[in-house]
Amino acid sequence: MKAVALTHYLPIDHPDAFLDVTLPTPTPSGRDLLVAVKAIAVNPVDTKVRAPKAKVEETPRVLGWDAAGVVQAVGPDVSNFKVGDKVFYAGDITRPGTNSEFQLVDERIVGNMAVSHSFEQAAALPLTAITAWEALFDRLKVSVPSQPTILNKTILIIGGAGGVGSIAIQLAAKVAGLTVIATASRPESEKWVRDLGAHHVVNHFGDVQSQLAECGFQTVDFVLILNDTDQHFPMAAAVIAPQGMICTIVENAKPLDVSLLKSKSAGFVWEFMFTRSMFQTPDMQAQGDLLNEVARLIDSNVLVTTLGKVLLPINATNLRQAHAALEAGHVIGKIVLKDF
Ligand SMILES: NC(=O)c1ccc[n+]([C@@H]2O[C@H](COP(=O)([O-])OP(=O)(O)OC[C@H]3O[C@@H](n4cnc5c(N)ncnc54)[C@H](OP(=O)(O)O)[C@@H]3O)[C@@H](O)[C@H]2O)c1
Q1: pLDDT band at 143 (very low <50, low <70, confident <90, very high)
Q2: Origin, by domain of life (predicted)?
């Protein structure tokens, strides 16, 4: 099968940062699906895993954790899917990634694609939708969709126009009924977050606390940090309401002073979307279930894809271009690559 892989961890401007290779097609066992990958999306985790280092892989390593495709074969214990089903998933960071023509993935972390979606629209969603859904509903404990929020609660979403922010805004505003204040620093990213449902927009490179006050908010009930935790945590601690909750998905480089939260009895929680698959938690199926719910919400016109740009085909040249854009830090929505 065709694949885009690496053997050396190189800067993205190096011509060999990714290689077009041919690898053996794997065979499914247990609860694995073999998926014929039709479209993939790139995420900052890809660039973090690819970050330059001395390590050399003996066999080409396939990255990538977002795909849409068609079930090609199933393992003997598979019960949720059959050959021919159109699926979307992020996969498992401990296994080979999505940047190959065929891939094995555990059925419990796979969802059925929205009927109304093309492969590229579907591939834009899984990793970020899982992250945003788990952050909002499992970590921040925002009221679950079946129990609509009755209080007019507020959420500050930092990094609103990125991949995760683009779906988090929609889930918070359209599914949970929260008042959403999103951050964006440029006219085009501000327009993008407003179009997705943000009620207010503030600039993450300015004084966020003062801008919130100008919008009429002294505090917010929830803060979701989707960029630069070191920069934003002290501000989040200052604006969080008494008994509010802060969630971050981005690793910190410096220690975080959680004592800032004590007098408010405010909470702090991490979201890492690979936790369930990495630790094979008993509730792994929750990711497949939430992807199915996201697809249902797409087909009901509640949510829209966060697809920003499509590159054709899936090859080393286009993957380098996509990684370079992510590393520059101002992508709007998702970059998707389509067809091998
Ligand atoms: N823990 C997890 O499970 C998990 C899952 C997914 C992602 N992540 C991490 O979350 C982060 C965001 O991922 P993503 O896919 O949303 O990234 P992304 O799509 O690359 O985010 C780009 C956005 O970040 C905004 N931005 C740039 N600098 C910022 C700053 N200093 N403060 C706030 N926003 C800023 C930009 O807005 P402007 O152009 O308007 O400045 C841009 O729209 C990455 O570090 C990623 O690795 C973690």
Answers
A1: confident
A2: Bacteria
